[in-house]
Amino acid sequence: MPDVIPAERIENKIYLMRGKKVMLDYDLAILYGVVTKTLKQSVNRNIERFPADFMFEMTVQEMENWRSQFVTSNFARMGLRRPPYVFTEQGVAMLSSVLKSKQAIAVNIQIIRTFTKLREMVADNQSLRLKLEALEKHYDEQFRVVFDAIRRLLATDDEPKPEIGFKG
Fold first, then answer.
1. b/e code 107-118 from CB counts within 10 Å (16+ = b)
2. What is the mean predicted confidence (pLDDT) over 105-109?
């Protein structure tokens, strides 16, 4: 089955908040093809399925910080008039039990795959970083000259530079 929504579009809707990768109710509603109000009503009717580690509501302060990141001032169209629900990966998975349309199920599968892909990328990067650190420790003496040269290139020069241009 071909992807309903490109993975990049989903990746662009995953944010880091409170130290967790999350998605906003507004973005999920668009992906599922429902209005935000409908998504929230479905969640509220099944609130026992959404403990705090699955879903939380942004605080007023978090919402203000969030708003400050947008250039546009039309928050009403962005679903940010009220603090949005924020869903962790587990919360997104739980949404599949309350939103049962074919589109919601297909999109939910894609979202979970995207979360998994991001988790694997982080693990791969962590592994690569550890390998590089081990190599640097092992070969530190042999490449000290190289490391010193790089440090000199990166060091800032405290001497003032002559001004270039016309003085009027």
1. bbebbbebbeeb
2. 82
Provide the angle, in degrees to the nearest 10, between the axes of the packed helices 102-138 and 25-32.
Answer: 120
- Identity of the amino acid at 7: A
Please provide the size of the chain in residues. Answer: 168
Determine the Cα–Cα distance for residues 129 and 78; give it in Å rounded to an integer.
Answer: 38
22: which strand partners? 15, 88
pTM comes to 0.63
Beta bridge partners, 24, equal 86
Query: Between 148 and 114, whose confidence is greater?
Result: 114
**Tokens (6 digits) for 6:** 């490109």
Confidence check: pLDDT of 114 > 80: yes
| Upper half-sphere CA count for residue 121 (Cβ side, 13 Å) | 7
Pairing label, strands 15-17, 20-24: antiparallel
Q: How far is CA 46 from each of CA 27, 34, 49, rounded to the nearest angstrom?
A: 20, 17, 6
The first and second tokens of residue 139, run together, are 């070969």
Structural tokens at position 77: 């169209």
d(CA 150, CA 108): 47
**Rounded Cα–Cα distance for residues 81 and 64 (Å):** 11
Can you tell me whether residue 22 is helix, strand or coil? strand
